Amino acid sequence: MEWTTADLLDLHPETSVLDHGLRPFGGGGRMAGPVLIVQAPADNTHVRAALETPGEGRVLVVDGEGVMSCALVGDNLASLALENGWAGIVINGCIRDSAIIAGMPVAVWALGTSPRRSDKKDRGGVIPETTLLDVRIQQGDWLYADTDGVLAARTPIHDS
Question: Fewer CB within 10 A of the end CB, N or C, for the chain?
């Protein structure tokens, strides 16, 4: 079945919606996959480390703590996501190189853009859970996204 977030939400109304400010930036369209969460307090060291590993169809959730003063993902990291098989990236923070990312077949969602790069001081790391836009997300939860928005579910809710 070809799914849309609207149809999935109609079928599973208990599903959480991350509907307060995330915007699609990548040209990859929809995405679905289990979550890996990385905390990145104005520092994308661990974002890069995660994206350098095999994504295996997962979605990287970047807990940037809503910081809007720097970007946590740019075109180089979006390219790593593509090369290593990540389904997409959702960032509680900003990206840069948005025009380039828009032309890439990768799903990237973020709060906004900033031309400033992040620190590289090895702060943050993989964490078991986070709250993103009032939605609690745990490692292994599933995220779904298309042009209508982003959903979070505890288990897969789509038909293969």
Answer: C
The residue to which tokens 């977030």 are assigned: 5
E strand or H helix at 6: helix 5-11
Full-model pTM: 0.95
pLDDT in tens, the chain (160 residues): 589 999 999 999 999 999 778 999 998 879 999 999 999 999 999 999 999 999 999 999 999 999 999 999 999 999 999 999 999 999 999 999 999 999 999 999 999 999 999 989 999 999 999 999 899 999 999 999 998 999 999 999 997 5
Q: How far is it between the farthest Cα atoms of the chain?
A: 44
